[in-house]
């Protein structure tokens, strides 16, 4: 039996052509998680959806679902899209690609949706704001899918630790600074060292969940930077 959803808060993760005049949407929604939708006729010259279905924009979507893919029945913009340019565009696609790779369709993640919606505008801020937003999103995404970092130990800011995936931080003079792990635990990445250590640890944790597969957004950004 078909299910109808009306005016659900959502962001588009990916959009690609479907058939002669339609679009296949991957959307992240507040109450229904990641969903696939066919927007019929959305590529037609006179379609009113052409200016609405934009990435990085808060939307209200309506759809009818009777199988794996739903049919879009309406779309409204809640606000203008977050304007990301240059490398910041890749930051946004990176967040989107993480959701596409690590979340199953129709598995609701309302807390993560709220985090995504709150942090996305930070990508358009200063370089530091954007970097912190990425780290916080990575951290909270891992926690929301059940693979959060274990940083509740009695960490000493003056010591160093390696991160054991089963036990959490283990004292090791060649590891991460204890102060950095505390900063990540408390989400206060105020200095360059803590942000660098957080990036290395979180990226390692995400690689484990991706099974070694590389994200396209990260690969394209590396090509852009020539690294």
UniProtKB/TrEMBL annotation:
InterPro entries: ARFGAP/RecO (IPR037278), DNA_rep/recomb_RecO_N (IPR022572), NA-bd_OB-fold (IPR012340), RecO (IPR003717), RecO_C (IPR042242). It comes from Fontimonas thermophila. Keywords: DNA damage, DNA recombination, DNA repair. GO terms for cellular component: bacterial nucleoid. Belongs to the RecO family. NCBIfam families: reco (TIGR00613). SUPFAM superfamilies: ArfGap/RecO-like zinc finger, Nucleic acid-binding proteins. Gene3D superfamilies: Nucleic acid-binding proteins, Recombination protein O, C-terminal domain. One of its GO terms (biological process) is double-strand break repair. HAMAP family: RecO. This is DNA repair protein RecO. Residues 10-77 form the DNA replication/recombination mediator RecO N-terminal domain. Involved in DNA repair and RecF pathway recombination. Pfam families: RecO_C, RecO_N.
